[in-house]
Amino acid sequence: MADERIRRQLAFLAAQMMYLQTETEYFTAKRKAAKQLGVEYRHRPGDLPSNKEIRDQIQAMARIHEGPKRLEHLRDMRLDALRLMRLLARFRPRLIGSVRTGHVRKGSDIDIHIFCDSQALVTDTLDELGLQYEVEHRRIIKYGEERTFTHIHIHDNHNYELTLYPEDKVHYVFKSSITGKAIERASIAELEALLREENPELNLEAEVERLEDHIDRFKRLQIERGGVGCYVGRGW
Questions:
Q1: Positive or negative CA dihedral for 164, 166, 171, 177?
Q2: How confident is the model at residue 236 (pLDDT cuts 50, 70, 90)?
Q3: What's the pLDDT tens digit per position in 83-119?
């Protein structure tokens, strides 16, 4: 086993990279941290900190640097997630990631799984909603098997990342790369219940309506300034 002090240093360095957004992937961040400290991880990859150890360090940094505003930010991101999920209800959206678990930090995206057998149907819907987006096809090779995942990045009140899966995967149990357990996820109804449970005084419908009004005013201003209308097309 690696010295625990070195392991903690690796976790801290990797977390710092991810908190400052110079790296976005645990895999890359921990290996860059190892290189900085001169740790040879290729022979003993088990000596590297786990994703959970790094995530815990990221959360400690968020608590120190962002304070109580982090919880307000979490509530606002969950409300915004609910707003978009309602608009995409036909695709049975499920909120996942840091906004679902509560482990948000500055720069966190809102991650949502959607389920549809047609990418064009999803992008047509986004076009109808007037949303700016980009589609990314990401190739992953794991255990010798290559798979391609479709991610749709939406730039709105927050940054969203939609991951598109076939409809028959809606009940599939996805595993977390951090805990190794089934990921936490929330349907529209479950997210509504979570928001009401954690914010009993919150007028949920009024807050979602307020967000809609704010975004509508912002888009109208963009149109007046000539800033809307440059959407990414559907030729991927």
A1: negative
A2: very low
A3: 999 999 999 999 999 899 888 877 789 999 999 999 9
* 92 backbone φψ class: left, alpha, beta (φ>0; ψ -120 to 50): left
Between CA 115 and CA 122 the distance in angstroms is 9
Q: In what order do the strands lie in the sheet with 110-115?
A: 94-96, 110-115, 159-165, 145-155, 132-142
Phi and psi at 88, nearest 5°, equal: -105, 25
Pairwise CA distance, residues 60 & 52, whole Å? 12
Paired sense of beta strands 145-155 and 159-165, if any: antiparallel
Distances (CA, A) of 171 to 88, 166, 177, 229: 18, 11, 19, 36
What predicted TM-score, i.e. pTM, was given to this entire model?
0.71
How far is Cα 173 from Cα 190, in angstroms, rounded to an integer?
A: 17
CA gap 119, 198 in Å, rounded: 35
CA–CA separation, 233 vs 230, rounded Å? Answer: 9
Supply 118's token pair: 């047609």
State how far the Cα of 142 lies from the Cα of 162, in Å rounded to an integer: 21
Torsion of CA 10, 11, 16, 18, to 10 degrees: 110
Say what the pLDDT of residue 179 is: 74
